[in-house]
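Minimal example, chain plus coenzyme A.
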Amino acid sequence: MTSRYDEVYARAKTAPEAFWAEAAEAVSWTKRWDRVLDFDRAPFARWFVGAELNTCYNVLDRHVEAGRGAQIALIHDSPVTQSVQKLSYAELLDRTARFAGVLKGAGVGRGDRVIIYMPMIPEAVVAMLACARLGAIHSVVFGGFAAPELAARIDDASPKVIVWASCGIEVNRVIPYKPMIDEALKLATHKVARCVLIQRTAQRAEPVPGRDLDYESEMARAMPVACLPVLATDPLYVLYTSGTTGKPKGIVRDNGGHMVALNWSMKNIYAMKPGEVFWAASDIGWVVGHSYIVYAPLAYGCTSILYEGKPVGTPDAGAYWRLIAEHQVKVLFTAPTAFRAIRREDPEATHLSRHDLSRFEILFLAGERTDPDTLIWAQTKLNRPVFDHWWQTETGWPMGANCAGLGALPVKPGSPTKAVPGYRIGVMDEKDKPAPAETIGPIVVELPLPPGCLPTLWNNEDGCRRAYFERYPGYYLTGDAGYIDRDGYLYIMSRTDDVINVAGHRLSTGAMEEALARHRDVAECAVIGVSDSLKGQVPLGFVVLKAGVNRPDADILKELVQLVREQIGPVAAFRQALVVNRLPKTRSGKILRGTMRKIADCEAYAMPATIDDPATLDEIRSALRTVGYAGTTA
Ligand code: COA
Ligand code: AMP
């Protein structure tokens, strides 16, 4: 098939309003828009102004009304509980409408926030969709975050209700959520009067009388609630993500633009058809889970898989192949780290031969750059196209991809292919001007951003302007650096800020430094992301101890690892720190984290002209060598 990519890209570029108005015909509206795009308050764009819709209606009701109620909407495949549960569209709608009734009874209405702190169980999806049904705004918090992170989100989002489950299950370890919920509610300044508790059989939680409503008994007596139409520009959810500082950023997603963009992406990027099975092996706590476990596949009438397991260890490196075969998956979307984990355990992919993958067509990877080695391994073993694609919590759907639905382009390993229609992507040079092809620099997107991308940050429009729109007027700053080759292929090489990507999880080294700085013996610290063959990157800490501290370093380092676990959570995967006498700094006192990272990763670096004392780098190099990292000067 010859690709229609060029033609479609050009159309979206020259007439964006007509392009997205046409795409919007795939969405059910209760009131059509007055304007497709309102860019009067640039840099902030609002799509489908004046229109009304309900996202939950688009995701569930309309499929049932169209006679497809018996089709499976959601498959919960949970090797950790050894169960598979299938919910039809009609069943998911029934549960969602009743849970909307529970939330309504707890006082939740349009515009109210609801925090969802849950593992990968169907009730989490039900809770998200029930919020959408009521016009309430959900904020899902990933289960791997610790109480202080949850508390920070409670304070920022000021939820009326928290929906939580008694435990998560990590391979064969039960993680009780109650200590985290109780502690977070104690730490938060914002007071939450009501919680809804889902009891899991693996471990029940003791409810707090007067605070925790029991999910099962509330559902048994709940009345179903109908969809409430909201403005296209009203928020659907707030999802917190890591930024440069320790404070997470609340990315807002609207209702209308989001539905339009996700619907478009299912057909044109992922080449899906209604009724087919789509599996995003991610977590609902991340944007991939929001967009491609919940909203996009369901809006498009596909079957979506909610997988409560890992690529390896539940029970083995054949888990992904089992799911693909058993549920007849057409497209799988996961992080490269998952494939590195599978390859490490089963380099010859011997598990593949036990499964029938005849329905499987394409593997999409994202969350971090797909290294060519992993890409080629996956391609060879699966004998299927493997496409890297690039996006962020902020955009909610891919910015760069091989649009399979438009006819795939040739793959260049190391590149997520080209800008997706609707995104005008460029690279800036040192003079803040658009850089020519093949030049590395900060990657930007020309404004206005297409539908689906963040309209703003929750309660923080100024912060949004500063973080994304101020540096290059007229452009959105992605925070990534890379280049575009002469054929228009994108290469996303690294972050330009303090964000690191650990096993596809986006984390802030700034937040980890804040945690380390709380230790009573730490005078100064720095955290960098160093290369890791499994997780892509892992954090590594450096601490300077206060004068007079004479406890063994090993004890202090153990406490530091524990501290990050308690403050941020196990997902930070912070396992190593080094004690040094001094940190390398510029004469104005800025820590030279970039140079430290290059030394750790054995990359060439130039001695920074502004360095205060070059000998500090020697000490860093020696310390790194003690734990297996080292480097050379250029
Ligand atoms: N709740 C509680 N704890 C969690 C958690 C959750 N939802 N998710 C992860 N953790 C914990 C893990 O148990 C682990 O704890 P430990 O330090 O006690 O062992 C820690 O957080 C780090 O987890 P992780 O980074 O997942 O490492 P791992 O060694 O357990 O597994 C991989 C490695 C590669 C198998 C795993 O990271 C993986 O499946 N990655 C795919 C990621 C992905 O899909 N990302 C979405 C982007 S598309
Ligand atoms: P998140 O907001 O968690 O989705 O993380 C977004 C960040 O992950 C991006 O800004 C990139 O740094 C990185 N990322 C995601 N996908 C890719 C990719 N395909 N190639 C390179 N980096 C990626």
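Residues 143-144, 168, 170, 175, 281-283, 286, 288, 310-312, 334-335, 337-338, 341, 366-367, 503-504, 570-571, 573 surround coenzyme A (ligand 1) (CB under 6 Å). The radius of gyration is 24 Å.
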